[in-house]
Design brief:
Helix Hairpins, elongated, DNJA1/2-like, alpha+beta, Hsp70 protein binding, unfolded protein binding
């Protein structure tokens, strides 16, 4: 009784083998069954025979502690599931077929394709690896597909594994899948069409904007299309451009695509990730954030270091030498930097045939967050480096900035997301540190200016009026009456630097005088000075 009860429970939970006993509660157990079937798979012939006899009779099983009735079809379903190939990769049980876990790059083009199977019904290879066909197994989501380098494998629920191969490696008319079923019967399918999945859409094409469109253009295009495809104004199908061809799509489908495109392109971080690796990169970054990027309190103990936003790249710092006149007057500047960028749309097999991708090379390894089991009941997240499927290149980028009037020496200007790009990461910022160049006349001291003025001995004794050309080309008069002592300083109010963020306020100009003595005197000069003093 306990044997059959536990067996049913294990089967419902997905176990493929019978439970190992001892039996609880001191219940009597058929000795032949426990000896022959303990711990053996349901496909074992003797166990199947014994269990089928018990199950087909639908005998109520009772004990002091419980009462349990086994339906006859429950074990039949269990036996059929036990004969299915493993979906986890490796060899399927009983067939010797090694079913891959993932979909090889060679067969990425099959995602979203529809085929006519054996001149019977339409089937579909979904982008998430599920297989859709009008059978009970597929309706119960028991059908999957995967591919290795050479062929495609379909795990078709109770019908076992099918392996097929196309005669053309692209979704075109006339393409055929041919292969065999697990029982040896031949099978074939004729290509019908391919409906682009969300991750295969070109969102720029959906919104009808260029790849370098600014946020205002993207928002304007979205609003226009949202009105055009709104359910109150659009019913049935419309003709739209898709991958260079005109196709008919439902209004609801277009509305969904327009909303999805704006959701990605309308947010700067998502747009950068999309440009770097498409929707797969956007989804991967969202998974790495863990639903909002909150700090993991245990990360410091398990290698995470308590960091936030691990999918964000490092900031880069550059130094820019700026003229004092630009700081005084304010100015627009341009600086060119060389950085790594991800080539948009050049990853995988599709990028090999695109001319714009010929100059692209290998990207650095990507950093992915993976879960690892460190012990019973303990699962931690760790970073793992994996080879990137994307392509990268070096590119000269021009940074444009405004030098504000009176900005301080050593102040910085931040350019968001303009640092080097890496697949799966939001680029860091470029931080431009302003360093003031030496000026031939003026020296800056905070909001004040200083300068040195040379005067002759005569001017030092008799006074003078001189003119100085300021940083904005206006003339400043320096007047001194009487005797000017060497290294004395004259303050000229309001002729210093403009105060940052208060451009109508100015500091002061401090003029230090240096008296130039004559190298020699004539006899007449000596006599005149002697008579004077």
């Amino acid at each position: 009784r306990v044997f059959l009860r536990d067996c049913v429970c294990r089967r419902l939970r997905g176990y493929s083998s019978l439970p190992r006993l001892p039996f609880p509660m001191g219940c009597a157990t058929p000795p032949t069954m426990s000896r022959r079937c303990r711990g053996r798979p349901l496909t074992h012939l003797r166990c199947r025979a014994l269990l089928c006899v018990a199950a087909s009779a639908a005998v109520p099983l009772a004990a002091a502690q419980f009462q349990f009735e086994i339906p006859a079809d429950l074990f039949n379903q269990g036996f059929q599931q036990a004969q299915q190939p493993s979906r986890r990769g490796g060899r399927s049980r009983g067939s010797g077929i090694r079913v891959p876990r993932d979909i090889h790059d060679n067969y990425q083009w099959m995602k979203g394709t529809e085929w006519l199977w054996n001149n019977w019904r339409e089937v579909r290879f979904e982008a998430d690896g599920s297989f859709d066909a009008p059978t009970d197994s597929c309706a119960q989501r028991q059908c999957k597909w995967s591919a290795d380098q050479n062929q495609v494998y379909i795990t078709w629920g109770r019908d076992g594994v099918h392996w097929v191969k196309p005669n053309k490696m692209e979704p075109v008319e006339g393409n055929m899948l041919t292969g065999k079923r697990e029982d040896g019967e031949r099978c074939e399918a004729k290509f019908l069409k391919k409906e682009l999945a969300d991750e295969d859409l070109d969102f720029y094409e959906v919104l009808g904007v260029d790849e370098d469109a600014d946020p205002k253009e993207i928002k304007k295009a979205y609003r226009k299309l949202a009105i055009l495809y709104h359910p109150d104004k659009c019913q049935g199908k419309v003709e739209v451009a898709q991958e260079g061809e005109n196709v008919e799509l439902e209004c609801a489908t277009m509305m969904h695509r327009v909303n999805l495109a704006y959701e990605v392109l309308g947010e700067e971080d998502k747009r950068i990730l999309y440009d770097a690796g498409g929707m797969e990169m956007v989804k991967q970054a969202g998974d790495d954030q863990g639903g909002g990027g909150a700090m993991d309190p245990f990360a410091a103990f398990f290698g995470g270091g308590g960091r936030r936003n691990s999918n964000r790249g490092q900031d880069a710092q550059v130094e820019y030498r700026v003229d004092l006149a630009d700081i005084y007057n304010g100015n627009e500047i341009e600086a060119s930097i060389n950085r790594r960028v991800v080539c948009r749309g050049c990853g995988g097999e599709k990028g090999k045939s695109k001319p714009k991708c010929q100059s692209c090379g290998r990207c650095p390894d990507e950093i992915r967050m993976v879960q690892r089991q460190m012990g019973p009941g303990m699962i931690v997240q760790q970073e793992e480096r994996v080879p990137s499927k994307e392509k990268c290149k070096s590119e000269d980028t021009v940074l444009k900035a405004t030098i504000e009037r009176g900005i301080g020496d050593g102040e910085s200007i931040r350019f968001p997301r303009m640092a080097e790009q890496s697949p799966g990461q939001i680029p860091g910022d470029v931080i431009m540190v302003l360093k003031q160049k030496r000026h031939p006349v003026f020296t800056r001291d905070g909001k004040d200016l200083k300068m040195n003025m040379k005067i002759s001995l005569k001017e030092a004794l008799l006074g003078f009026t001189k003119t100085v050309t300021h940083l904005d080309k206006h003339e400043v008069q320096v007047t001194k009456e009487g005797i000017t002592r060497p290294h004395s300083v004259k303050k000229i109010k309001g002729e210093g630097m403009p105060v940052h963020n208060f451009p109508s306020d100015f500091g002061d100009l401090y003029v230090e005088f240096t008296v130039e003595m004559p190298r020699s005197l004539t006899p007449e000069q000596e006599k005149a000075i002697a008579e004077l003093f």
